[in-house]
Amino acid sequence: MTISARASEAKFAVDVVTAFFGRIEAIDDADAIDLTFGNPHELALPGLVSAMREQVEPQSDDWFAYKTSEPEAQEVVASGLSAELGLDFEPADIAMTQGAFGAMSLALALLADAGDEVIIPLPGWFCYEPMLRVGDLTPVRAPLDPETFDLDVEAIARAITPRTRVVIVNSPANPTGRVYPKSSWDALAAVLEEASAKHGRRIWLMSDEPYRRIRFDGIDFASPAGSYPWTVIDYSYGKVLLAPGQRLGYLALSPLIPAAERDELREALMPIGLAIGWGFPDAIMQYSVPALETVSIDLAEYTRKRDRLYAALTDASFEVTRPEGTFYLWGRAPGGDAVAYCDALAARGVYIMPGTLFDQPRHFRISLTGTMGMVEAAIPHLVEVGAALRDGGVRAS
């Protein structure tokens, strides 16, 4: 074998995703309705464009020199996080990264050794497992509640072994759209504290929060960083800006981490950020952070799309989880076969994501990042194909 064993394992873990991505990229139909990945389908937010444009013109001779974490970006993030979460973050707690993906990579390099186990939610983001595999870490799946997709603290407790080093949680959750309450974090904190003491080794919590600012109906948000001191937070601006191609995010250390350990982590943020491949955002993106803190997709418009799609599908007897956050809608495939449902829709030029990418072959995910026109155009096909599958046949056109 030419590639390393860990590369082979990572590739195998993500093959279903890359194959699907290739299929979507190959679509050659200007009228196709693509509701798969969380990509933009309209021009970029004016606030994003203006923030970046203002930083393109150099203001000093080192404007485009090597950048680690820019102090002004750290200060803005720490201030915003403190206001959002009610915790006293300091600039030194913040490492600027290449999106949430970069923040997670940094956290795992800081906290976990080869062979350590990392517990991940199921269903959960499809890149958790390959990211762990390529880092010589062992993913251990802990299912969410199969009906409500609530956090199942008991399932996490059962998954813990002496080799457990990190537990990853995600709220608002991709793909289900669930937002977990503080009571869940308090219960999980008790489990992790007890297990850490039992095994004589600290278990860390990584809170994956790239959708934190995308919530519906005024629902409150609680971060586990306020319940369990041994927590790090990863965040991406790419979701709230709907600009995943502009890599900007951060890793934040909970201010509740005991002082000695917090200082050790702070000192390691820059050198490990360098060691993982210069994982810092580009200069222009970091300079833009103060302006981008106030830029967001139109949540009212996303609420309208969510409500329209949710109502249409539930009226047509679909089992759908009402999203509390994120920009996805998660449902059970009519007839119980997500691939059959998605393939039949693709034959009509409508593309949604089968749950097989999340190890859930009976479910599907629809992205709300398409335009309202795309949503309206997709609804008749979603409903008609669903009815045909429930009746035992499929009308492709």
UniProtKB/TrEMBL annotation:
<keyword id="KW-0808">Transferase</keyword>
<dbReference type="GO" id="GO:0008483">
    <property type="term" value="F:transaminase activity"/>
</dbReference>
<dbReference type="InterPro" id="IPR004839">
    <property type="entry name" value="Aminotransferase_I/II_large"/>
</dbReference>
<keyword id="KW-0032">Aminotransferase</keyword>
<dbReference type="InterPro" id="IPR015421">
    <property type="entry name" value="PyrdxlP-dep_Trfase_major"/>
</dbReference>
<dbReference type="GO" id="GO:0030170">
    <property type="term" value="F:pyridoxal phosphate binding"/>
</dbReference>
<dbReference type="InterPro" id="IPR004838">
    <property type="entry name" value="NHTrfase_class1_PyrdxlP-BS"/>
</dbReference>
<dbReference type="Pfam" id="PF00155">
    <property type="entry name" value="Aminotran_1_2"/>
</dbReference>
<dbReference type="InterPro" id="IPR015424">
    <property type="entry name" value="PyrdxlP-dep_Trfase"/>
</dbReference>
<feature type="domain" description="Aminotransferase class I/classII large">
    <location>
        <begin position="31"/>
        <end position="380"/>
    </location>
</feature>
<protein>
    <recommendedName>
        <fullName>Aminotransferase</fullName>
        <ecNumber>2.6.1.-</ecNumber>
    </recommendedName>
</protein>
<comment type="similarity">
    <text>Belongs to the class-I pyridoxal-phosphate-dependent aminotransferase family.</text>
</comment>
